[in-house]
Amino acid sequence: MKVARQSSALLLALVTVCGSATSAHAQQDPTPQPAPLASREVAFGAIDSGLLANNGPIGSGPAIVFSTVVAADDSTWLRLEFDEVKLAGSRDAGNASYIRITSLTDGYDQILDNVSILQWKLTSAYFNGDAVQIDLVAHPGTGDNQLRLSHGVASEPAAADRSICGTTDDRVLSFDDRSARILPIGCTGWTIDDCNHCMLTAGHCQGGISTIQFRVPLSTSGGGLVNPHPDHQYATDTSSLQGNGGGGVGNDWAYYGVHPNSNTGLTPYQAYGVAFNLDTTPPGAGGSARVTGFGTTSSPVSNTWNQVQKTHAGPYVSFSGTTLGYAMDTTGGNSGSPVIHESSGTAIGIHTHGGCSSGGGNNWGTGANHAGLVAALASPKGVCECPGPEFTFPDPLPEFVAPSGGTTIAMDISTVAGVNPVSGSGVLRLDTGSGFASVPMTDDGTGHFTATFPAIDCTTPVTYYFTVLGSNGTTYVAPNGAPASTFSAMSAYGVASVVDLDFETDDGWTVVNTAVIRGAWERGTPIGGGLNRDPASDFDGSGRCWVTGNAAGDADVDGGPTRLVSPAYDLSGLSDPKITFARWHSTSGLPQDQFVTEISNNNGSTWTPVSSVGNNGNQWKVESFSVSDYVTPTNAVRVRFSVSDNPDNSVTESAIDAFSISDFLCSTCASDVNGDGESDVLDFLDFLDAFGACEGQPAPCSGSTGVNADFNGDTIVDVLDFLDFLDVFGQGCP
Fold first, then answer.
1. What are 30-76's pLDDT values in tens digits?
2. What is residue 606's DSSP assignment?
3. Which domains, ranges and CATH numbers included, belong to the chain?
4. Model's pTM, two decimal places?
5. CA-CA distance, 161 to 166, in Å (whole number)?
């Protein structure tokens, strides 16, 4: 996977959106309280690893294929911004390539693979010190990797923006794992007790939310930020972000989630186990409130406390509409902090504006009862989206649905996280080629739903999914991601075998050789022992197959092509015939020595390519295709398989086994040979026509109406077919 950076400048636009005070609070002159991260862009030169792969033996483990060190002199912290990253392999396969970034100051490191590098938007965590080492690590045999890097951001001296409710700053250090520092905007965020334990902050901070840092250590003696280990830094999920961007006092909120840590794989709640209980109906004013956040400091407070977690409690002064007023010490960087009701310990709002320093007034926040915030909490997005009812199917989903209708699917929907399926809300949504239509489902009120398919024309592909309303008002779907993801089936009663060959007998196939030196097609039991790219045995276990150069030792194809050609098959009366076969093709002569499959519907006068396969490996593989995808089914359909070693410069061995032709069943009535849904005199006349035209001939064979005369499927049309048909016809059909 390769991703490129569109605009690194976006992460350097450290803009503070400052809402103005409402007229009701003009005398307090409240101001928003972010503390934008003082930073500068640093250039590293054009660093390009080039395309690199681990060419070691499979199973030897990952290895460093590229390493470099970058530095920003006189910086207390450093962050990388990649221009382009390509990382091979995958998490699911356990062989994902990754970038490892290590601080040369404290040894903290971060791992970024092809998933987390996107989550981090081609940036790294913040690293302490002025230099980091970058290692590109790849697993063997997974392909090319590349990184390009030209710049990053590094520290500048921090600034202070104070709002102290008194003559001294009375905040004290705190170590609450529910609160985090937001960079680069310089705000505070905090984990709440919603379904996925996402986070809140001020709306005027949302434009600068990128990295969320927990367990922040003390700053340097000069006030420079010191970053926590990357284990405690998290990338924001932008798809989860909801907020109003900051609309002034009492109207300033944002709700968002973060991706699991790229090193530990844990979310903040999984890592620390704590979250604030959010009260969306805050109590009236009175008593004390507390603000805990990452505000700046100034003398005489130690610079080491700058933008690290501190807390202070003070009077809870007012609550009007969605505006909270309180008097405790805050500064720039406290924007977004939780406003905590001291007696209950619950969070009742978001701290957004300072005002104490303007003349003994209050600091201000947005109450958790804000209608926009409450609506966002009820409709989370991205990683914040709540789990809903779980869909399970007691029986396997059907491969076929009856053309006459009536096929049913049972579905059980269980309660998850307190969300129940609403009785009567289940819907089967199905598409037969004209868009999705809705079919109501039935249920028994206990979460057991049943879907019943309507009548659908035979051989029509069907895609479908299910929806159900949850008790929380959210509509849930199965499969996940529907309608982009769906289930599928075919309208038919099943599949009928028309031709089924194991090549134990001579079934009328012929071999046509052109300039073949040796290794032509022949039918028999493989005797080469699998020692020279040839198959050690046939595919289906019957014993014989068609194989090239069936001899011990060096007996592969030389020259050619050698072609294996089927007899003519009558497929004219079939619904949608499908050809399936097992193929062996092993060659060292790529790209020229291909295994070519072709089909003809005019008895071989012309041929249409179906597939051309290079080295199949030393193994059997099964291939299938629908005849109508390539030619119109007629009464003279042939298939041929061609192999050559021309020029004669390689070892090439091929084989064919288990050849079959099948068709969809459009009737459950055996004597309904014309497929019109009824068993009547027309079926008798049509079969009589077919039998008269085909008696004594190999199957398949049909008459003028396309009815197959080989009724009993024994590959020969004879009197037994006629007698078997009479027996079934006499019984009638339901």
1. 777 777 777 888 888 889 999 999 988 887 889 999 999 888 877 88
2. S
3. 39-155 (2.60.120), 162-384 (2.40.10.10), 394-492 (2.60.40.10), 498-664 (2.60.120.200), 670-731 (no CATH)
4. 0.52
5. 15
